[in-house]
Amino acid sequence: MKSNFAAMLAMSAALALSGPCSMAQTGNGLDNPDWTEEQAPPPPEFSKDKLIALDMPLHVSVKVTVDPETILVGGDGIVRYVVVMTNATGSTNAVYEGIRCVTNEVKTYARWGASGKWSLLGNPEWKDMNDNMPSHHAQVFARQGGCQNRLATSKQEIIAALKSGRAPGQPIKTN
To answer: pTM, whole model, 2 decimals?
Structure first.
């Protein structure tokens, strides 16, 4: 009886210890002093056909959406995506960004505007999502599904959370 209990205790300890280790291997962990960002892929093409709206504050006059096909979760723990912003006259702008969920940082890699072409930023830098930036869409994207408990999840989980209006891992609302 005692040996069964000891074996179960040892197995429980092994499972508990394996969780953080596996997260660190995916690039999400803060405990990885050798973390480096992967080379960001070029800005992806985006479509206006299947956009998912972000729940922006009422004072925001533009419609802010995400193209789910552009969401990419990298091995470095960065969630990259394209946000599409449309104003009342129908003019569209877009940004290609990445969020490092574990540090609450965002980086803009490129902008798309009236020219219909991507303009790469020369030296994109990580910025705190909580800073007083002109737009808080990255913060809303992270909260609405881009990040879960400061970790990047899978593309499928992010899309499901964005579509349902709930954070990943939260129960589906039944009312």
So the answer is: 0.77
Query: Which pLDDT tens digit goes with each residue over 48-82?
Result: 999 999 999 888 889 999 999 999 999 999 999 99
Distance CA 22, CA 17 (A): 9
Q: What CATH code is carried by the domain that includes residue 57? A: 2.40.128
**Cβ pair 77, 26 in contact under 8 A:** yes
Q: CA of 83: how far to CAs of 1, 62, 124, 131, 137, in Å? A: 58, 12, 17, 19, 8
User: How confident is residue 13, by pLDDT bands cut at 50, 70 and 90?
Assistant: very low
| Full residue range of the structural domain in which residue 113 is found | 38-164
Task: Give how far Cα 155 sits from Cα of 44, 78, 131, Å.
Answer: 15, 11, 26
Whether 94 and 81 have beta carbons less than 8 Å apart is answered as no
Secondary structure class of 62 (helix, strand, coil):
coil
Same-domain pairing of 15 and 91: no
Query: Has residue 175 been placed in a domain?
Result: no
